[in-house]
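During the second half of the funding period, the structural biology subgroup turned its attention to how the target accommodates small molecules. The most pressing case was adenosine-5'-diphosphate, which had performed well in the primary screen but for which no bound structure existed. We therefore specified the complex as follows and requested a full 3D prediction, including the ligand pose.
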Amino acid sequence: MNVASVIVDVAVMQTDRPFDYEIPERWQEVIQPGMRVIVPFGPRHVQGFVLEIKVDTEIRKLKPIVEPMDIIPVLSEELMKLAHWLTIESLCFKISALHVMLPAAMKVKYSKLIRLTGEKSLPPELASLFKGQTEIPWEEASDAGALADIRKEVKKGTIEVIYSVKSKGRKKTVRMVRCLLSEEALAETVGTMAKNAVKQKEALLAFSGRRGNWLTLKETGMSSATAKSLLGKGWIEEKQEEMYRDPHSGRHFEPDKPLKLTENQQEAIEPILATINDGTTETFLLHGVTGSGKTEIYLQSISQVIEKGQEAIVLVPEISLTPQMTERFKRRFGNDVAVLHSGLSIGEKYDEWRKISRKEVKVVVGARSAVFAPFENIGLIIIDEEHETSYKQEENPRYHARDVAIWRAAYYDCPVILGSATPSLESFARAKKGVYTLLTLDNRVNDRPLPSVDIIDMREELREGNRSMFSRTLFDKIKDRLEKEEQTVLFLNKRGYSSFIMCRDCGYVAGCPHCDVSMTYHRHRHQLKCHYCGYEEPAPNICPECGSEHIRHFGTGTQKVEEELLKLLPEVRIIRMDVDTTGTKGSHERLLRQFANKEADILLGTQMIAKGLDFPDITLVGVLSADTMLHLPDFRSSEKTFQLLTQVSGRAGRHHLPGEVVVQTYTPEHYSIQLAAEQNYESFYQQEMTMRKMGGYPPFYYLALINVSHKEAIEASSAANKIVTKIKPSLSPAAVILGPVASPIARINDRYRWQCLIKYKREPKLTAVLKEVLEHYAKQGKSNELLVSVDIHPYMLM
Ligand code: ADP
Ligand code: ZN
Ligand code: ZN
């Protein structure tokens, strides 16, 4: 008997293994590994993935597969292997690893239908339920209290219950028609038609000269009623053509040609091209300041890959998937490019995925999850801005796109390019050790100078009586740009520094009742909102603690900066980009276009403007608060500050006009700020490595973070203690266990949080014991309300 081993779509520990199902005779030829199937599981029917097909000689009573969901496998053998690897590496359920590789549209819902078999007639009380239809939704029967009667009929064979899969990923189709008449017959027919058949005549005439072509109804100008009558007469035929929802429809991309590489670029690209040609796997770290021509190297490497008949994946951070970035790929490779990002609708994403799956494109440009693009002949994987923490997924499977890229590249024997102006310490250390190959671009293309950077000590400003959020230097320079009609970018480092409400008399800070964090003040609605659990309440006008009216909001949100700027310079035109103004689809793109068209003097925003912007008239970049991130309880805070400041500075003076940068800070002496101003990556690396070595952090140690949460603080802490006791004996004396301690954010959504950080170099037993811990708590099920999670190589430590 042929048996399929299936991973079912139920993400709990007990089901995290394959289950065997019989393959019914009629699907013997159809069902293959990598396909989705519907299988019975307990009382339900669920979706599952076929892992393998086995021939089973044992006599067992297996349940049969209900039906296949795919005609061809949606996951290749390679992706199935990758899923297996992900499961082990990130300690996730196999079903999570399989799901992450498919677009959301392919996650299906099931609906039950009750259908008449037509074998015998129904008793009248049930017949009325069907109202002449052959099938009705299960819910209708259930609501009518008819399920018991229906069960009887099912036994008799009058009725069957079927499981219908509601796929969100509907293909979009368009109706096409074609004329079957010869040119003469067409003219003759039109001539002999009744006078009042105007519409039909027009419709037929639309085909003259285009006979034999498939046209959409729109192109012929006929209505569906007209089409119906022409079809009835046999004059035309029709078909449904599958259509892609094209997010770029109506946009024309002016094709461009490869640029002649500079000597420096030529040196960097040669080893890459060599590995592409030889078909060897190697990881390159391309370190080059912003504007040094990294993207041009990507483009030309991809050309080589396409020429060889292979495919390329390009990952860019979601936030820099700007139209400007994707346009460069569209211009170079035209219709060979698919783009995947969160701005697309579920349907659009599904369509892009299908283009990749059918190999109708050669290049995919996308955010993190595009690393799973279903190509089967990959020749190159590129990760731009490789230091970005958004490449790590913060939910199961907790994978890092860099690791997945390197795995896939090894499978296909092809190179990986990691590009950055500020590589992560981990990657740079690997390059220094020779694990990665370091390629360096020292200068900007055509030696355009890097912008000059002024560091302004805001304590000094305060001492000299300037209480505004703009230093005198920055303000003067903004005014100067307004006069010269040049553009300014103002950057507010908002992370860890949003506006909150505080009482000036008693110091009360409005905190979330469910989490140990202060709530963020939203001025336009006068509301307080918790960004961790979503709780909202109206902002108070008097202090709930002491009754004082001196309660007001602190912190510098982008809105507040905008207001202050308008007070000082009423005529200035500002475009503000933050979560509030970019919430709707396409708004990000629209605002950038407005700025590019010089409809504003100043672009003001948060993290999201730090990257990818490349406008010729930006000559001033102001960083309003450089150090807000430095004080977060995160060993990467200096690295993140350095990266962000370097990125932001890179926005100025990219073209013919020279650029200036003003960095305002309360800690001007900090090495991450000083060295970012000098754009001195190498010194920063040395300094930061010393700190990491002293602290015992990556890249000197690996980390594993265990998070425990429970509604009762005591339960969370005691479970965390038990876990540590359990793990300790399996670790070598070289491993360091920090904790358990209460997490920096000790409560979220009414759950108390404890954590334990393991620092290690080589612990062969670690993943096994962590898996045991997870299994142990999962077995206790939901009843005890305890949640335990493990994050290997964590990026979020709060
Ligand atoms: P990066 O990706 O390192 O920021 P880009 O590839 O975007 O750098 O290059 C910066 C600018 O220089 C772009 O406007 C690009 O068109 C231009 N450029 C890159 N390479 C060359 C070249 N070889 N010759 C002329 N201009 C180039
Ligand atoms: Zn008060
Ligand atoms: Zn909250």
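Two results from this model are relevant to the next phase. Residues 503, 505-506, 508, 543, 545-546, 548 surround zinc ion (ligand 2) (CB under 6 Å). The mean pLDDT is 84.
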